[in-house]
Amino acid sequence: MATLQPPEEEVKSKGHKRTISRYLQQSHEHIFENNRKWVEDKKNKDENFFEKLAAGQSPEYLYIGCADSRVPANEIMGLEAGEIFVHRNIANLVPNTDLNVMSVINYAVRHLKVKHIIVCGHYQCGGVQAALTPADLGILNPWLRTIRDVYRLHETELDAIADDTAKYRRLIELNVIESARNIIKTAAVQQSYQDNQYPIVHGWVFDLKDGLLKDLEVDFEKELQSIKKIYNLAQGPDRRASTV
């Protein structure tokens, strides 16, 4: 659907508060116009679409991706509303101390019974680029610390890459892989897999230049076995009491 373009010159000039106010009102109203068109289109294709939507959700997939506006989860996967449970943040991170992402994983695994968990990064990620910047970025520092820790874990490999663009792209991939590993370390995933043989955790990267998804081929079984010595949370006297 079409989007409104801001009146660049007028917005930059002084004394055009009325123009700015009108643009803001129109850009807000434009969304509701788009929404009405979307509803009409859905009903034309399936008159029962919204009845089905209201009946509940049973998505097969949990998608954890970057908040970048150029990466619409449903669209790049060719899925409809109700088919994918989505969580997004800057640079598709999965810190074990982030109650937001941990709550999403728990709900998706324990209640929605998703079969696949996907961590999807994208090339040209601003969050990863910021983490490569040797500067104080204020409130972003603790969040970007996770990406810098990924660099530290893979320092030998990354420092051996002479080309800066290639190094940047590889860090994006490694960041996805480490986020996938953090998911595999959770009790919810380990216990569900032990009982049901799902979910499987995947790592992907979306390429903005051609629209294609790249499977990083995270070996779920191998990763699960490799972390068990230290991160084995599948057992316990009362598994129902586990919250992570």
UniProtKB/TrEMBL annotation:
Broad enzyme group: lyase
Cofactor binding summary note: Binds 1 zinc ion per subunit.
Name the record gives this protein: Carbonic anhydrase
Binding site for Zn(2+): 66, 68, 122, 125
Domain of life: Eukaryota
SMART domains reported in the protein's UniProt record: Pro_CA
Cofactors, names only: Zn(2+)
Pfam families given in the database record: Pro_CA
CDD domains tied to this protein: beta_CA_cladeA
Any one annotated GO CC term: cytoplasm
PROSITE patterns found in the cross-reference section: PROK_CO2_ANHYDRASE_1 (PS00704)
Biological role stated in the UniProt entry: Reversible hydration of carbon dioxide.
Protein keywords: Lyase, Metal-binding, Zinc
GO biological process: carbon utilization; cellular response to carbon dioxide; cellular response to oxidative stress
SUPFAM superfamilies: beta-carbonic anhydrase, cab
A GO molecular function held by the record: carbonate dehydratase activity
Family statement: Belongs to the beta-class carbonic anhydrase family.
Reactions catalysed according to its record: hydrogencarbonate + H(+) = CO2 + H2O
EC numbers: 4.2.1.1
